[in-house]
Design brief:
two-stranded parallel ribbon, single chain, 91 residues, 2 strands, mainly alpha
Length: 91
Amino acid sequence: MRDEGYATVAVADHAVARRTLLRQPVDLILADTAGPGVADPWAALEEVRAAADAAPVLIFSDRVPAAFAGYAARGFAGLLATVRAALVGDT
């Protein structure tokens, strides 16, 4: 994302993401569905979403595509297009 001109903040897990969002608002969140020691990844993502205020949360993953309803393999170009659309409010 940095190579595309975006300022980024990387965090190790959902707990760090929540703490970071309280100190540093962001325009968009790219989140994986799970991390180490996360028993319920969807609950963890909801907590991140709550801390994100109005910032859109995009979920991406290298997990098995069949695990996600409506998943379409789009690669990085597709992710980048989705990021751009989310930042201008076209999602």
